[in-house]
Amino acid sequence: MIIVDTALKKHAAQGRSIAVAIVGAGMQARALARTIEVSTPGMRVVAVANRSRANGEAVFGDMGMVPVWCETAQQIGETIAAGGRAVTGDPVLLGAAKGIDAVVEATGALEFSARAVLAAIEGGKHPILVNAELDATVGPILKRKADAAGLTYTAGDGDQPGVAGNLLRFVEGIGVRPVLAGSIKGLHDPYRNPQTQVAFAAKWGMLPSTAASFADGTKISIEQALMANSRGLRVARRGMTGPDFSGGDPYAPLVPLDEAVKALFPVLDDHLAAGGPGIVDYVIGARPNPGVFVLGTIEDPVQRHQLAYYKLGPGPYYLFYTPYHLCHFEVPSSIARAVLFGDATLAPQGAPTVAVAALAKKDLEPGETIAELGGFEVYGVLENIETLRAENLIPLGIAIGGKVRRRVARDAPITFADVDLPPGRLIDRLYAEQEALYAPETGEVVP
Questions:
Q1: Which pTM was predicted?
Q2: What is the rounded average pLDDT of the residues 224-236?
Q3: What domains does the chain contain, in order, with CATH numbers?
């Protein structure tokens, strides 16, 4: 927030504000809108797009505002110009509407959000993704399109990848080379599903499938994919290492992070000794939870001596961490950085180095539909992109919505040959374009 907060206050003092449109009306979208309106000078939410009109209108209604329902981009622009707040059912209209600086995608959907983000880019709006699922699937090609349009494509601060992006920049800025970017989690059980997570979801006002994606490892893999693809990092093995100090009990006493990360040292040693660029991984049951951490190295013996003086230990790995991530509270900073400074919190560096593969959560039979992230059918694991391509594995974000073509045993990775995909999807075209650009030797990967 340093520099950004001053710039926003200056913006407000000049009678200006960054005009933000939000796609989605769920827990995160509503909370973000409130944070912008209540706590962020120099910024306002001017429009919301949501499939349910009532929920979209409630984003403003919860704050005592009366929005205007709009069915065309012109109506949205006119409403904004008149000082009103617009709600629409079609996120594509936000891209064409006047009076919007940035579009925040906050649904967690895939095909729906792909259309929203592409329309924002084509309409000259900075795309801010509070949607790691889409970013992990086709982020590299969307980032390239945004770059070509002179826009700043970025993940939102506050979610663990964005917080890790800030920490990575700090570590790099003091001359330390990051060799591992990690998250601290409380639970990993690949067989959790919407039924097992009903109570947790109800407590926190989220969909049971969303809660299940947190527990079954899907979200861990998606988040670490964003970290890896921002720095050219990889995984030491499929699914990462994920040492678990909880014993399967999310309420077990937590171990100190500096002790927990030692379990990753042998894996990291082997990877770096083999010439690897560094990895992403995670630990379960460590404190501070749920933060992020970076392990780094430095060659200069004088600087190593100084790090020891500042109580970071003798090396060779130095631990840096952020003890929390505050989700929607921190997203406005990313919006301002993108719009005012052209600065991304976290974004793909170019060609992806990892991807999230889909594994069967149960025995899948022909004719079954892979319904949703965190559902009953699949969970996600992180894999190096070369292996994904060599084994024809289907990325999780592409598998969603597919119909199983032949039997797949529980815990087996799913390939493109195992599923039939719905015709005419934008996300499939974007993924094919991404692969053709960054792995041209593989040819067309989507059958």
A1: 0.95
A2: 98
A3: 4-158+328-341 (3.40.50.720), 160-324 (no CATH), 354-442 (3.90.1210.10)
